[in-house]
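Run folding on both entries below.
>entry_1
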Amino acid sequence: MVIDAVSKNMPCYRCLYQSASEGALNCSDTGIAAPVVGAIGALQALETLKLIVGIGESLAGYLLTFDARYMDWRKLKLPQNPDCEACADFRGGFTDAGG
């Protein structure tokens, strides 16, 4: 999931996981293999570079899922939840550079 903090209409983590607990989960406890973590980390780094440099089409606003068992990728459009408190806080404190 890529979040472009410049956009007011961008969904956030809480839009995706509204009822997520504050408890931290780690990859070894949830059964995620180490090579998968490395592959996803490399993709996150690439998406960051694309946003900074302004090249290509960003995955911002999409959720990219990977099933390593079947080597299957899925790209899902993620809408912003209009009732998301985290987004409401962000939108309330957001100021455009243009005024």
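>entry_2
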Amino acid sequence: MTQVSTAMNASDDTDATSGLQDLRAEIDRIDDTILDLLQRRMALASGIGGLKSAGQVNALKLRPDREAAVVSRILAQAEPECRKLALGVWREIMAAGLARQGELEILVWGGPDPAHVLDSARRRFGSSPIYIEVETAAEALAGAATRNAVAVLGIDPKTAWWTRLGAQYRDLWVFDSIDNPHGGREPGALAVARIDPAALAGGQTFVISAGGDAGGGEPSRRLLGLDEGWRLYAVDRAPDEVTAMDRYRGVIGRAPSFSLSAESVVQA
């Protein structure tokens, strides 16, 4: 009886080993396919870079509207348990494709929470860009205005850097809001760059106002910053007079209503 049991156990072990090898072989085949598709996608991205000559002169080769559309489409198809993974993977893929079109710097000023802002910037823009932490918000904005760079700036009640977008840096636009690491609806940082306004994604509009309301009474506007009478608002479903990319009306940018949260992407 013991010999029979031993033989049966050995057979089960053999079957399990064979099944494990089959699964690993299938994973290897899938990995080979993924690698082939990635290399084909990168080749296409390199070709796209040469076609991005139209649009605003001196603007970076960033298309936030396209990125938002790709992320939304992918996550809508992904199974719920894979959405977080898919978001991270596609962020990384798109960042690598953009790097094929030219080296990009991410200038990070974290305000009161530099470690979290830097971590969030890396999650948003992937491992391909060069990350540089700067001492002041002014340094980040100056770099974004003159270099092939994106400025990621923390929202700090003591530093109203966003007022400079209204007059000093009219070629810079807020194009993404990065989630607050402590949770909540309001962003912890904003991404700013020389973006063609026509390429900004929809979702929420960022408006600065000197003392008065912004958004034409729109109830969905949210106060993000306040400094000596100047206010920074995020306006959801903004009326036409605010959604127009018009600096004279205080509009400084527009961004998707999601960034790092897969759940937010699907809900948007």
